[in-house]
Amino acid sequence: NVTALVVPDWKALAGRLQEDGGVGEGDQLSTADPRVTALLERVREEVNGTLDVWEQIQRWTLLESPLTEDMGELTASMAPNRRVVAERYAAEIDAISAELSPFRRPD
């Protein structure tokens, strides 16, 4: 199962939502906005349609801010620093993993 931490391109996202009539110019968007999650879910489904099953994104969560080199989340070559990202976003990663675990405790 593939999981992902997603940082939206807010400008592109707002443009696509405007095209779809789901947002007005100047509307403030956030990761908590259901219009954002609905659009990104549709995009995930579109992308997954082009991938083999083992490559498809099963679960994802949104991050408010992009990863940065200044915060140590990216290396000098702009590759993710997996250790730093794993530490900084441990709660988000754990939440995704818990959703996928076949050993989840009942709620």
How does this model look, in words?
With 107 residues, the protein is an alpha+beta fold. It is built from four helices and two strands. Strands 1-2 form a two-stranded parallel sheet. The chain starts with a strand and ends in a 7-residue tail after the last helix.
Oligomeric state of shown chains = single chain
Number of helices: 4
Rg, rounded, reads 16 Å
- Taken in chain order, the helices and strands follow as EHHEHH
Q: Order of strands across the widest beta sheet? A: 1-2
List how many beta strands DSSP finds: 2
As a percent range, the share of helical residues equals 40-55%
End-to-end CA span: 22 Å
Largest sheet: 2 strands, parallel
Mean pLDDT: 86
| Unreliable spans | none
> How large a portion of the residues is in β-strands, by DSSP E?
5-15%
Shape call: globular
What structural category arises from helix and sheet content?
Answer: alpha+beta
Layout: helices, strands, pairs:
Blueprint: E1 2-6, H1 10-19, H2 34-48, E2 57-62, H3 82-88, H4 90-100
Parallel strand pairs: 1-2
Which descriptors apply to this entry?
107 residues, alpha+beta, two-stranded parallel sheet, 40% helix, 10% strand
